[in-house]
Automatic annotation (TrEMBL):
<feature type="compositionally biased region" description="Basic and acidic residues">
    <location>
        <begin position="84"/>
        <end position="94"/>
    </location>
</feature>
<feature type="region of interest" description="Disordered">
    <location>
        <begin position="72"/>
        <end position="94"/>
    </location>
</feature>
<protein>
    <recommendedName>
        <fullName>N,N-dimethylformamidase alpha subunit domain-containing protein</fullName>
    </recommendedName>
</protein>
<dbReference type="InterPro" id="IPR058713">
    <property type="entry name" value="DMF_alpha_dom"/>
</dbReference>
<dbReference type="Pfam" id="PF26354">
    <property type="entry name" value="DMF_alpha"/>
</dbReference>
<feature type="domain" description="N,N-dimethylformamidase alpha subunit">
    <location>
        <begin position="7"/>
        <end position="106"/>
    </location>
</feature>
């Protein structure tokens, strides 16, 4: 079970067109909510409201050497698994890495 037919249509025909290098730069800059472009708000809303159960779910964990992106376990109570060896110095950098992973999972980034 993936996205609904309607959400798949929105992903393919609306959201994919909004994901541009400029939008990714804006997301990396992390403007205050009041200053986010309509395109960034739409992309973030889509990603937040549409967790595809067939795709990984990510979380950010604090580690002794920064922040790490992990994959949440599909079974409740099981520990998360690291998603790569990279560490981020700030939580914001790690959250941006999660955004990029989610976009890649949906086929909107190479």
């Amino acid at each position: 079970m993936g996205l609904s037919i309607q959400d798949e249509f929105i992903r393919a025909n609306r959201i994919r067109a909004l994901v541009t290098p400029e939008l990714l730069a804006e997301a990396r800059a992390d403007p205050p909510r009041a200053r986010r472009s309509a395109a960034l708000v739409e992309v973030l809303d889509f990603l937040r409201r549409n967790p595809d159960p067939e795709l990984p779910r990510y979380a950010v964990l604090r580690t002794p050497d920064g922040f790490a992106v992990v994959r949440r376990a599909p079974v409740r109570g099981a520990p998360p698994t690291p998603d790569g060896d990279d560490r981020h110095t700030t939580r914001r950098e790690a959250e941006h890495a999660v955004l990029l992973r989610r976009l890649r999972d949906y086929g909107m980034l190479p």
